[in-house]
Predict the 3D structure of the following.
Amino acid sequence: MSAPLYHLRGLEVGYGEASALIVPELSIARGSILGLVGHNGSGKSTLLKLLGFLLAPRAGELFFDGRLVDAAALRAGHVLRRRAVLLGQDTCLLKRSVAANVAYGLRLRGQPYTQEAAPQEILAGALGLVGLDFAEFGARSWRELSGGEARRVALAARLVLQPEALLLDEPTTGLDRASVGHVQQAVLAARETRGATLVIASHDVDWLKSCADQVLLMDEGRITGVL
Amino acid sequence: MDYFSEGLTQAVALLLALDPETFSAVWTTAIVTALALIASLVMGLPLGFALGHFRFPGRRGARLFVDWMLSLPTVVIGLIVYALLTSRGPLGEWGLLFSVPGMAFGLTLLGLPIVVSMTATAVESTDTRLTQTLLSLGADRWQLLLATLIEARFAMALAAATAFGRIVSEIGIAMMVGGNIKWHTRTITTAIALETGKGEFATGIALGIVLMLVALVVNLLVGLLRGRSNGTGGVSGGGGA
């Protein structure tokens, strides 16, 4: 069995004096799907931000791909964040077209994909995964999208990056039934075709139980059980 | 009413005849406003960005200072600049009092806090969600800075338009620092005050028409930019994702 992609030990995240997350021990196997369920404020989003290197732990150790993520590693956090991509609840679209939004992460990585020069099939493929037609949506402005469409574009913008770890915070919330189906299929395809490690926080327990290798129950910043 | 319509007719005639005295004031206003606006933007945009984006000791104090500068009466700014530029003042040897550069210096003190404050607010309001988004997409520190700047572009243009509107219509600083010297430092606003005092309503109205047209264009521009900068941070309908 290969080494886990993530390993957390004695880990604590806090805001001020309060602890938002306490994880004594957690391993996430490479290529696995980990589901997180729990009430609002149970610590799911905090755990995802930690795994996405957007938060620094107050105490404990976080290993990624076998290496300790210390303060020095977090200072160059973009290197890690290009391998583990988060789709958070507070993510937004840039004031650009749909195609430019999907291509944006590739541009940040120095890949010469601009709205004009992007190989259309790459962007079309990513949009197609979330059920959006490139010909219809590619040139649309971010202003012209519904909330559900914007969420799917944001997911496409992360799928196109083909990260090693894809961290999804409530990816299907607020979507209609058809859109939920597209998102769920796209997420699973990321693992099936690319071997991505997925960590998904959702209130859709049935979906998580059907697709995840493990579903953890969280409450008050702690992992309280396994479903 | 005849009095007013007569003045209006004469004003239009002055404008159509390209009256040299009227257009001297317009030209001086354009030069002074351009200089002050450029100086305000060159200094204000980076300062506002730094104030809105970075967290550093004394940031709250700096913000309070900028907000305080915003609320200073222009006559007080004029007084301070006069004291600085007068021959006995610390900058007296520069010989800027009653000159176009001197007026531009004073008006920069009016425009600068507007640009700094509005830029800082624009950057602050884009930061939370935009920063998370850019970081999660893999932006490094410089890419984050650049992208935040680009995303706040309409709001910063709005700051520039607002500062322009304040500078072009200002009278206290222009009067005190410029001295309202004919053919030299007389601007639209100081000329209106002077001509009206002399009973020369036609010239006053002619200059007023120019100023109102400028104000109209600026307001249209501000309205357009405000519409474009709505939803700062690029939050799409329904909350993005």
Remarks:
- The first strand of chain A starts at residue 6 and ends at 15.
- Chain A touches chain B through 39 residues (CB under 8 Å).
- The radius of gyration of chain A is 17 Å.
